[in-house]
Here is the input.
Amino acid sequence: MEIIMSIVAGILFMAATYLMLSRSLLRIIIGTGLLSHGAHLLILTMGGLKQGTVPLLSEKAASFVDPLPQALILTAIVISFGVTSFFLVLAYRSYQELGTDDMEQLRGNDQQ
Amino acid sequence: MTLLHWAILAPFLFAIFVPLVYKVFPKLHTGWFVLLLPVVLFLYFLQFLLNRTHYETVIETVEWIPSLGINFTAYVDGLGLLFALLITGIGSLVVLYSIYYLSKEKEQLHTFYVYLLMFMGAMLGVVLSDNTIVLYTFWELTSFSSFLLIGYWYHREKSRYGAQKSMLITVFGGLSMLGGFILLYLMTGTFSIRETIAQVDTILSHDLFIFAMILILLGAFTKSAQFPFYIWLPDAMEAPTPVSAYLHSATMVKAGIYLVARFSPIFAFSAEWFWSVSLFGIFTLFWGSFNAVKQTDLKAILAFSTVSQLGMIMSLLGVGAAALHYQNFEYYTVATLAAIFHLINHATFKGSLFMVVGIIDHETGTRDIRKLGGLMSLMPITFTIAVIGAFSMAGLPPFNGFLSKEMFFTSMLRVLEMNMFQADTWGMLLPIIAWIGSVFTFLYSMVLVFKTFTGKLQKEKLEKMPHEAPIGMLIPPIVLASLVVIFGFFPDLLAYTLIEPAMKSILPSLLAESEHFHVHIEMWHGFTPELFMTIGVVLLGTILFLTLTKWKKVYGLQPEKLTLNTFYDSSLVALDSSSSRFTKFYMTGFIRDYLVYIFAFLIVMLGASMASLGAFSLDVSKTAPVGIYEVILALVMIAGTLTTLFSTSRLTAIIALGSVGYSLSLFFVLFRAPDLALTQLIIETVSVALFLLAFYHLPELKRREQKLRFRLVNFIISLGVGVIVTLIAISANSERVSETIASYFIENSYKLGGGKNMVNVILVDFRGFDTMFEITVLGIAALAIYSMIKLRLSRREEG
Here is the structure.
């Protein structure tokens, strides 16, 4: 199972990289969204997808899945959400101010 | 801290008070205050000379960075004392001269004297340090203060150019020298020069020997303006004349000579040292004197003459090294003797000549020999000094330059008798080049005197009517010129006081502790080959001088494009433009390009290290079994991902991203992570809403849906990233090295944390700090979004 999940994470990373290399600002942000999905999936996979019960002690099961990666992912989700929403508003503001979302036109230029 | 250390640091301490004096006593010429210091220091160093009975050396150590073996060890031996006396003695005269030369009203005197004192202290530090790192520190300080002094009239373009040039070249040499010192440290384990000399056998057989020697010689050659590094010296003539007299004739340019002399006991046993020092020196002698003749500016003549004379001293030091290989060493040490003697002589006559040129410049307003002439009757005292200085420089009796020139010829002739280092074949070069160089030396000395002082006075070309300089300006050159004559008639004054101890420092291994070199300098040797060589120099020199206008075209033969200055200038321009072109080539300003660099580097680094370490491994024994739901969900996720990739519309891409997020939360359900599933669902919903919001606000203009630009590079890079991540994930999963700490949380989350939801207990109890700062991140993001929307400075300015 872990192998399949690794491949899925790899595909997510690949797509994310491809989108981040594109010209449109919105696509770059979609790429970062995919990248964080991939990373979260990878953390979960690397924690081991051992069969076990939900990490709730009230279940009284013999084995539980590892709770630590879940806590880490939860933190990561919230942080990436914060950053993504910031980026989105930044993108929205730059549409408003600069009138373009084309990275080719948004390039830094020392002649200015 | 002993008195000696205070003496070295005194100029720096004194420099602090100079601006104060300048401000508090505006009527006093600041120079009078400054003059106290070099005079006192000169007397202080003189008492070393007078008190010494057994030629003992003085060593005083103050710890600076003892853990690194770097200590401020002041060390006074013959060589150090000779230089210290030159620095303080000529320093006093130069300060006196500058009082009359620099106007109190027009010049920023305090900066001038601060720089000058800084230089004096740095120079004393160079010659009296035993520790190489301390020596290097002072060495660079001399470069800096020289830079400041050359650029003293900083509003002039040429001053800034000269200052920059000298800085670049001497700092290049200084850094090479530092490299050499570090190599010496690697060989011996000490920074102390004396202790290094004690381990000379280790160094001679060491592989790093030759590199250390080359690096240290680079330092010496750049500082002492040897070929091809001499080019900074003529441009340094933009400095005020007292600076040229002090730094660029008597002291700083001799720092390289000092370095060669000081490190002779370490390197002089090798043939490489003998040949590089003497050949570079002798060629510099020729090249400097040859080029001096073509100059029309008096200071430029003197600059090339300095280059030439430094080459002569350098070649003498190189030839003197051969004495180490002979039983009858006294026969060959005459070169070292001549080097030290000429070092002193050069400081006296060159200092006085610079001061003379300064006086001429001051009194006529020009230094161009084409405008000058007929000053003999108007400025008799200046003329006398100039004749003494120039004749001494040319090597004419009865001045001291004659004596050292004779000894120079003697030493060069004795090279012919050497039977080592192939001196018997190539050694012929040395006396021949030396003789030709001396002819040109004679020639430019004559040009200097006769083109300036004889002939017709060209009143219409001069800015003011020339007259004799004030007495204060004349005293320093008179003192120096008197020394030229005194040393000419009574050279033995110097023999056992200065020259012999200095020789002992340069060639310490030849003599036992109590023995002394035999030093005797006399005017008349009988009819020796040297005498005939001098006569030949005078004859040919006179002929060339009289026919100067006819053959001066020779100098046009070297095209301007092939000179070292053009080479230096164009290499600076090339460096500038090529680095700018290189930066423009890869710094495109386009984020995509930078991302390509970053990702490509990531792929190459990770891929290469995986491949080289054979790190890939695949182990399926411990993996969880494959379930049908997971496979279906994985296919859905891949489909969603590919849709974002290939969608032509942004709306589709956003919805596909949402579908990936929701399938991720379904994965969380399947992999038994309820809290994650919950959070992911909510956040994905909010994110998609945000994306749609941003999409909605796209400007009309750009609303046309643009197809993704398909680029091969992007594809390869992203494929590489995906493959690398997958490979690393699989390998890491197969190579689990230790058990998880999950059991701790399972056991203790109720016992210690009082909660049954392990994930939540970890978040708020075991690892609560993470959560706290994650809240902070959200808070900052919220504030930033708020301020981004609310604060619109550009519009407010417009409105």
Notes: The helical segments of chain A are 2-20, 25-46, 67-98.
